[in-house]
Amino acid sequence: AYSDALTIFTRKRFPMDWASTQNNLGSVYQTLGQRARDPARLEQSVAAFRAARRIYTRRAFPLDWAMTAYNLGNTLQLLGGLSDKPEHYRDAAMAYRDALREYKRETTPRQWALAQAGLGSALHWLSMAEGDTKSLAESVAAHRAALEVQTFETAPVDWANAQNGIGMSLLNLGTLERSGKYLDEAEAAFQATLKVFTRESQPLQWSFAQNNLGDAHWNRASQGGGDAEYMKAIEFFENAKQGFAEAGYTIPIPLTDKKIELVKQQLAKK
To answer: In the chain, what are the domain boundaries?
Structure first.
């Protein structure tokens, strides 16, 4: 329907309708691409959002420009997850930063926080692709900024997701820099998510949190933390494995089994 509308609402005759239709088309392609894990649909989404920005310029329509930048960042991040190409995450981070040029905490707090969260996520995955600790530190800062708006009281799920984002980036910082301080902060962030992601209400998210806590303790053990850290890592990985099974999500279980095996081997060699 939106594609048909573009034959009527041409850019030359109806520029605003054309841009609005391009934005809507981008959202549709984004949803289709995400559901089907289809890079071609996501590329179409990127093209549509970029087309809309030809009309929604920052000077003429600053908030529409920011909105399409945010939407573009979301699609590029999804595309990065399917393609493993760092440039998609890099472009996503640039798009979120564009959005934050107009989204301000004082005037558009919700959109500002969502863009900060998107930026934090894009920078995390960019760092994973490139091994860049600078991007990890920037990811932590962006997620912490989002928490200024996404509080436990007003937006508990967003708050927990931001805590998880902080934890993931700090975990990788602690691993790359062999920093016990970062690992301690990562553990605190993962523990915070359990205030929302309970085993009863959010079993899958609870399981991932258990897995992340296991990774934190395993890294601490590998950095000389002692036998107790190995035992805690095994306990959390066992929790995660059981939770994944209960939630009917079996994909991570073989990797979790491998982690348990490796931790036990390392502990036995001590």
So the answer is: 1-75
Q: Taking the chain (270 residues) in consecutive chunks of 10 residues, what is each chunk's mean pLDDT?
A: 52 77 94 96 97 94 97 97 92 98 98 98 94 93 98 97 98 94 98 97 97 97 92 98 96 97 92
Name the nearest CA neighbour of 208 among 159, 153, 163.
Answer: 163
71 backbone dihedrals φ, ψ, rounded to 5°: -60, -40
Q: Alpha helices of 53-132 — where are they, by DSSP H?
A: 62-83, 86-102, 109-130
* Euclidean distance between CA atoms 84 and 82, whole angstroms: 6
Do residues 137 and 173 touch, judged by C-beta distance below 8 A?
Answer: yes
Q: What angle do CA 220, 224, 230 make, to 5 degrees?
A: 55
Contacts for 7 with CB less than 8 Å, ≥ 6 apart: none
